[in-house]
C-alpha cells in the first residue's frame, strides 16, 4: 500500500525510446522519440495533462505536451482513479 506522501508525487524520465511515468510502485512506460535526450523541466501538471521541457538531439530544448489520461485509457486503466492522488510531477533520473 502507498503512504500518502508517495501517492502525491509522480516521476517522469526517459530512457532510449521510452518515457517512464512512475507513481508509488506503478510504472507506465510508453514509446517516445528516439531523438529525445531527456526531460529537463515540468512546467505544469493539470490532472493528467503535462507541459514539459524536453531536450531533443535535433531541436534542442522544446516545450512538449503529454496527455496521461489518453495513455492510461489506451492501457485500460481507470485514469481518474490513478491520477487523482497525484499533486505534482517531478523529473527524476538516477
Quick take:
By secondary structure, this protein is α+β, with helices and mostly antiparallel strands. The protein has helices spanning 4-8, 68-74, 79-83, and strands at 9-15, 18-23, 26-31, 36-46, 49-56, 60-67, 88-91. It starts with a helix and ends with a strand.
Can you describe what's shown?
- By secondary structure, this protein is an alpha+beta fold.
- It has helices at 4-8, 68-74, 79-83, and strands at 9-15, 18-23, 26-31, 36-46, 49-56, 60-67, 88-91.
- The radius of gyration is 13 Å and the shape is globular.
- Strand 1 and strand 2 form a beta hairpin.
- The strands form two sheets. Strands 3-2-1-7 form a four-stranded mixed beta sheet. Strands 4-5-6 form a three-stranded antiparallel beta sheet.
Helix amount: 10-25%
User: What's the story with the biggest beta sheet?
Assistant: 4 strands, mixed
Query: What is the N-to-C succession of helices and strands?
Result: HEEEEEEHHE
For the record, give the distance between the C-alpha atoms at the N and C termini, rounded to a whole number.
24 Å
- Using only C-alpha atoms, the radius of gyration works out to 13 Å
Counted beta strands: 7
Strand fraction band? over 45%
- Principal-axis shape equals globular
